[in-house]
Design goal:
Blueprint lengths: L1 H33 L1 E9 L10 E4 L5 E3 L5 E6 L5 E5 L6 E4 L8 E3 L9 E3 L5 E3 L7 E4 L23 E4 L10 E4 L12 E4 L2 E2 L13 E2 L14 E7 L16 E6 L7 E13 L14 E2 L2 E2 L14 E4 L12 E4 L5 H5 L3 E13 L3 E13 L6 E14 L4 E15 L4 E2 L5 H6 L7 H4 L3 E3 L5 E3 L12 H7 E21 L2 E20 L11 E24 L3 E22 L19 E22 L3 E11 L4 E10 L1 H10 L1
Parallel strand pairs: 1-7, 13-17
Antiparallel strand pairs: 1-4, 2-3, 2-5, 5-6, 8-9, 10-16, 11-12, 13-14, 15-27, 16-17, 18-23, 19-20, 21-22, 23-24, 24-25, 25-26, 26-30, 28-29, 30-31, 31-32, 32-33, 33-34, 34-35, 35-36
């Protein structure tokens, strides 16, 4: 009886389970049949180009997708009334009902400048947004001081549509690479021109490594600008945006305007402090099963990780030191946190004191900023002091003056080499077998029986191998830079709408640096090395600009300018090194060699140009923009650019009032 009862119980429950299973499969099939797929393309309203990386989410859920490199997407959606939400940095978020459509193409509108907003264009000229015929975007200067970056350019990431920013990997203070709306050259410089208060910044567009294989990065003038001194940033993207600057601005321009103290009355003091920290986010992953060696065999001087499995067995110590006083054997086990534990906590501390004073006619702004930064790579440090003074005054009803002086002193210890350079500590770190702990590697040097300082490395005289702690302690760099940037301008208004501006600008950069390698630094300088470099460059520019503005019965408007500029750039430099042949080991002096190598260099360029540009408006909605420039240099060339734009907001208003 009990057997029959037990059998009946299982029979009943098995039938119920099968019934529930078939029911769930049926409901899933019905639900799947009710789902459908919607596809489409997302483009930008400002230029009609497709937008990759646009986030698309089914409203009211967490399900979604992103557009591919061609701006296309495909998304499975449930039956019924569904709305898709499209969002992208620099563009207005848009919600679109799908309805019965299987294809939904979306045009996103940029979220930048409103029609009544003022844009700072070429030569520091301010215009209404509706008057310009090219893409431009303003960036709120207050955002630059929040989560402040050592390099102010890095603060533009995620704030400008079409701006691709690659942060420099050379440690604190290294330059970053910016590309506006894609590369225009396969081999040349694709970065924009930086303009500060109407004056192009000297040497601000570089920032790459010294070679394709990596090397020490360069540092640009724009990277050490104090964010607290910036009043506004405008990014000009179109071909006409910076046509007046010629080929230097063929990739667009980033126009920076500094504070003037305008509007201040009496004395004002502002003190600001900023602290930020950083840690590595994504690290390279390596296998931690097999340790040092090859073919399943442990080899103590191997740089490969294809030895036996690491199970904690005891193996011979890797040290090449003949007087090694440590244990002759150690545990053969993995240290998977070697890479993570190598990095320090990056810290950036910035303090600024700014003073404003003035009255209705004269204003002054002065600031002092001190920045101290330590990178995530041990030993990489930056020290920067900057001083800024800006004076503006309206001397009479017709005459006004403006002047600025900026001085920046920056020192960088142990900039980080990039790429596959032998001096890149990441190269050494990634070649360290997992069975060798960081604690053991920190014992990076020893003296032999003859008193010579040698590198403590498991594979002595390796071609490209180094103990990472030898690299960061016994090889190094030091860079010192002094920059002076100044300008003075005068503007005279002959009559309402007619004015003349005269401006002189001066930029100077003095820099010197040194590089040293201890003896026994494999491949790079087995006998040690020492190099020094000095450079001095300056740029002087004098320019004039006539401007005429006139409205004719609220029908026609003219804003025309004609100007010219004389500029001269001069540079000198000296490089010297001991050619890897120090007479006395690790005494770093140019005189400590019998084979000094050196070279000096100098150069000069001069450019003279005439330019003119005009904006002709019709009833405040149709604008014709004409720009022309003649550059007198070898070879000389002329450039004429014509653009036409229609302000849709104003045109709709015009139709309404008619």
């Amino acid at each position: 009886m009990e057997k029959n009862t037990l059998f009946a119980f299982f029979k009943k429950n098995v039938k119920r389970s099968l019934y529930i299973t078939f029911l769930m499969l049926f409901l899933s099939a019905v639900s799947f049949a009710q789902q459908r797929t919607v596809t489409g393309t997302v483009t930008g309203a400002d230029d009609g180009m497709t937008l990759p990386g646009v986030s698309i989410i089914i409203k009211g859920s967490t399900k979604g997708t992103v557009t591919d490199s061609n701006g296309k997407y495909s998304l499975a959606i449930p039956a019924g009334d569904v709305e898709l939400q499209f969002s992208f940095v620099g563009f207005n978020t848009q919600t679109v009902p799908v309805g019965n459509s299987s294809t939904v193409d979306v045009v996103l509108k940029p979220s930048f400048i409103e029609m009544d907003e003022v844009v700072v264009t070429a030569l520091g000229i301010k215009k209404d947004k509706k008057e310009i015929t090219y893409a431009a975007q303003n960036v709120d200067a207050k955002e630059l001081s929040v989560a402040r970056e050592v390099n102010v350019v890095n603060s533009l990431a995620g704030k400008v549509a079409g701006l691709d920013l690659t942060k420099g990997s050379g440690g604190v203070g290294s330059a970053s690479r910016i590309v506006l709306r894609g590369n225009r050259s396969m081999t040349g410089n694709n970065q924009p021109l930086y303009i500060i208060d109407g004056v192009p910044a000297l040497g601000a567009s570089n920032g790459g490594p010294s070679s394709e294989g990596g090397g020490y990065p360069s540092f640009s003038a724009i990277s050490n600008l104090n964010p607290d001194d910036i009043e506004s940033i405008t990014v000009l993207k179109g071909a006409n945006a910076a046509a007046l600057y010629g080929s230097s601005a063929q990739n667009g321009a980033i126009v920076i305007t500094t504070k003037t103290g305008k509007g201040s009355k009496g004395l004002g003091i502002e003190v600001s402090s900023n602290l930020s920290v950083e840690t590595p986010l994504i690290l390279t992953k390596y296998q931690n099963v097999y340790g040092q060696g090859s073919g399943g065999m442990y080899i103590k001087n191997s740089e490969f990780m294809w030895g036996p499995k690491m199970t904690g067995q005891m193996v011979e110590h890797w040290s090449p030191n003949p007087n090694w006083d440590g244990p002759p054997q150690y545990k053969y086990e993995a240290h998977p946190d070697n890479i993570k534990d190598f990095f320090d906590l990056g810290v950036n501390v910035a303090n600024t004191v700014a003073i404003t004073t003035g009255n209705e006619k004269t204003q002054a702004y002065t600031s002092f900023s001190n920045t101290r930064s330590a990178g995530i790579v041990p030993g990489n440090k930056l020290r920067r002091n900057s001083f800024n003074l800006r004076l503006t005054s309206k001397l009479s009803d017709k005459l006004s003056v403006d002047a600025r002086l900026t001085y920046v002193k920056q020192e960088i210890d142990n900039k980080v080499a990039t790429g596959d350079a032998f001096t890149n500590p990441m190269r050494a770190l990634y070649r360290q077998p997992s069975n060798i702990s960081l604690a053991e590697a920190k014992n990076y040097e020893y003296y032999d029986n003859d008193g010579n300082l040698l590198q403590h490395y498991w594979n002595p005289h390796s071609n490209g191998g180094e103990n990472v702690y030898w690299m960061i302690n016994n090889t190094g760099t030091f860079d010192n830079t002094d920059r002076i940037n100044a300008f003075a301008s005068m503007k005279y208004e002959f009559s309402p709408g007619l004015s003349l501006m005269i401006r002189s600008a001066y930029n100077r950069t003095l820099s010197w640096g040194k590089v040293w390698y201890y003896n026994d630094t494999y491949t790079i300088a087995d006998n040690g090395d020492y190099r020094v470099n000095h450079s001095n460059s300056y740029d002087i520019g004098n320019e004039f600009l006539f401007n005429y503005q006139k409205n004719f019965d609220d029908v026609w408007s003219v804003d025309a300018s004609f100007g010219g500029k004389l500029s001269k750039n001069t540079w000198t430099g000296l490089n010297a090194d001991v050619d890897r042949s120090l007479l006395k080991a690790n005494l770093f002096s140019i005189g400590n060699t019998s084979n000094i190598k050196g070279r000096d260099y100098s150069g000069e360029t001069q450019k003279n140009s005439l330019y003119g540009f005009a904006t002709i408006g019709f009833k405040n909605f149709l604008f014709l923009d004409i720009t022309g420039k003649r550059l007198v240099v070898n070879p000389s060339f002329c450039k004429l650019v014509v653009f036409l734009s229609i302000s849709r907001t104003c045109m709709d208003y015009y139709r309404y009032v008619r």
